[in-house]
Design brief:
The protein is of the alpha+beta class and about 200 residues long. The chain has 2 domains: about 120 residues, no CATH class; about 50 residues, SH3 Domains (SH3 type barrels), CATH 2.30.30. About 30% of the residues lie in helices and about 20% in strands. The chain has 6 helices and 10 strands. Helix 4 packs across helix 6. The radius of gyration is 22 Å and the shape is elongated.
Amino acid sequence: MNDLSSLTAALTKRANDICELCGAADDLAPTEVGPSPSADVERAVLACATCRAQLAGEQDLDAKHWFCLQEAAWSEVPAVQVVAWRQLQRLGSETWARDLLDQIYLEDDVMAWAKSGVEAAEAKVKTVDSNGVELHDGDSVTLIKDLDVKGANFTAKRGTLVKGIRLGDDPELIEGTINKVGLFLKTCFLKKVTT
């Protein structure tokens, strides 16, 4: 028996043949809960195809599907708690997800594990300009092409300096001010000003 089949068997037994996140009974497979040196029963969950695809980012996050976390978040299995906490963080725009995050309690070591995965994922996504140079809050950038500003009735000209930018959740957008108008600008049209 290989490691994957023994891991699957152990998880299936622990989960009673259902997805540990949503309760589905079809197409179940182990999912590693990283960061982890190796996949083992304590660092994995048994998940259905829908949960696995959304966890991996292969499908858009479906808030209705993850409503199941209202039960899964209370699991006694630390790996399930970690996945639930991380998904609730990703669903932060949903009122029910924020409320549930406020209610659940994780032991200190489990919370550290949950946060380490989020920090690792966030570290991979950086905001960069059109040349691939990393942008930070407070940087100055220039426009590399003329941009029509819809709703403000002006065109921001190539070479326009935008000082004190602010980064947001989307790595492809920054916030800045041009002609005293606050705007969201696509990073592909910007070049960082170096001093």
